[in-house]
UniProtKB/TrEMBL annotation:
<feature type="domain" description="VOC">
    <location>
        <begin position="4"/>
        <end position="134"/>
    </location>
</feature>
<dbReference type="InterPro" id="IPR004360">
    <property type="entry name" value="Glyas_Fos-R_dOase_dom"/>
</dbReference>
<dbReference type="InterPro" id="IPR037523">
    <property type="entry name" value="VOC_core"/>
</dbReference>
<dbReference type="InterPro" id="IPR029068">
    <property type="entry name" value="Glyas_Bleomycin-R_OHBP_Dase"/>
</dbReference>
<dbReference type="Pfam" id="PF00903">
    <property type="entry name" value="Glyoxalase"/>
</dbReference>
<protein>
    <recommendedName>
        <fullName>VOC domain-containing protein</fullName>
    </recommendedName>
</protein>
Length: 145
């Protein structure tokens, strides 16, 4: 099966702050934009940040945490599955850019089916992001055994 890019729209409390985080700090190229929204290229996928006045200047998206491999995974969250080389490169790229991780970069399910590198952090509006990678994406992404 050939994968096609996804489109995801998320709320942010401030467009300039989101531009700085996604564009300047994370290095995602900007696409179309308006006063109330901006498109970003998230590894070939379309991430759109939309101004949400309900968040207020200090507000953040609410989430809960679910236990996975001994860590509290934030829900909701979104992210992208990368190759190991892409993940390693991105991890190095954001070194010193991300002040605090929700879950520090590590290898999850080590030695088990579905072994993966993963890391979680959030944007200034509280949107939780996960970046993960598998040795063999096709066989491991939905592996149950």
């Amino acid at each position: 099966m050939t994968l096609t890019p996804f489109h995801l729209a998320i709320p942010v409390r401030d467009i300039a702050e989101a531009r700085n985080f996604y564009g300047t700090r994370l290095g995602f190229a900007e696409g179309r934009s308006d006063v109330h929204w901006v498109d970003f290229d998230l590894f070939g996928h379309q991430l759109v940040v939309h101004l949400d006045p309900a968040l207020g200047s200090q507000g953040q998206v609410a989430h809960i945490k679910q236990g996975v491999d001994g860590h509290g995974v934030p829900v909701p969250h979104f992210g992208v599955v990368l190759t190991l080389a892409q993940w390693d490169q991105f991890r190095m790229q954001i070194d010193g850019v991300i002040d605090e991780f929700i879950i520090e970069p590590y290898t999850r399910f080590e030695g088990l089916p579905g072994e993966q590198k993963t890391m979680f952090f959030q944007d200034p509006s509280g949107n939780a992001l996960e970046f993960k990678a598998f040795k063999d994406i096709q066989s491991a992404l939905f592996s149950t055994a």
